[in-house]
Amino acid sequence: GMLLLGIDPGDYLYPLIQSWPTSSPSAETLLVRRDGDQVTYLNELRHRSGTALVLRAPLSRTDVPSVQAVLGKTGVIRGTDYRGVPVLAAVQPVPGTPWFLVAKVDAEELLAPIRQRTLLLAIAVGALIAAAGAGVAFFWRRQQVRFFKERYQSQIEHHALLGRYDYLSRFANDIILLMDK
Questions:
Q1: Which residue of 5, 26, 104, 179 pairs with 89 in a disulfide if CB–CB is 3.0 to 4.6 A?
Q2: pLDDT digit string (tens) for 3-31?
Q3: Are 101 and 29 in contact (CB under 8 A)?
Q4: Would you list the DSSP string of 127-173?
């Protein structure tokens, strides 16, 4: 007698690998293994269908995270995925198997919040600089107005004094002595 058990990876394993804990348009998990001088993708991929045990990548493409995984790299890796898109990937071997787990996300998606915050920070700094410039311009203009107003008042007083002096010098019959303190 013989007992033959079969497990369909499409029922449990592939959906488990393809699930991602958060909503992400580009993140996916790959299960890969070395197959001679190539890397074989063991699961269905998110962005291509019909790839389980069919899609392969040559070991010469060392920029691909799955190739780096089978060549012994672990941890966080930068590279280009099977679609040719720059990605950040976390790579770990599956203990007791010749498989490697690669969790990857597009670098553009991962860095988008940082770029957005940088843009907001640049806008805020620009607004603060503009506000400071407007404040300085306001106070400088106010000082100019005060200066010219005082100068105008001084000229009015000067003309009034000249008018009095002229009046005195024309109509006075006595000696006038002008002295300061």
A1: 104
A2: 888 877 777 777 777 777 678 888 898 99
A3: yes
A4: HHHHHHHHHHHHHHHHHHHHHHHHHHHHHHHHHHHHHHHHHHHHH--
- For residue 127, give the 3-state DSSP assignment: helix
CA–CA gap between residue 102 and residue 108 (Å, rounded): 18
Q: Which amino acid, 11?
A: D
The pLDDT, as a whole number, for residue 172 is 76
Cβ–Cβ < 8 Å for 57, 69: no
Instruction: For residue range 143-177, list pLDDT tens digits in order.
Output: 999 999 999 999 999 999 999 888 887 887 777 77
Answer for the pair 58, 74: CB distance below 8 angstroms, yes or no.
Answer: no
Distance CA 8, CA 14 (A): 9
Could you tell me which residue, 156 or 47, shows the higher pLDDT? Answer: 156
Residues in the chain: 181
User: What is the chain's alpha carbon radius of gyration, rounded to the nearest angstrom?
Assistant: 41
Tokens linked to 75: 């941890």
User: Do 31 and 42 meet the contact criterion of CB atoms below 8 Å apart?
Assistant: yes
Q: List, for residues 85-125, the tens digit of each pLDDT value.
A: 999 999 999 999 999 999 999 999 989 999 999 999 999 99
- 131 CB neighbour count, 10 Å cutoff: 10
- Distance between CA 50 and CA 64 in Å, rounded? 20
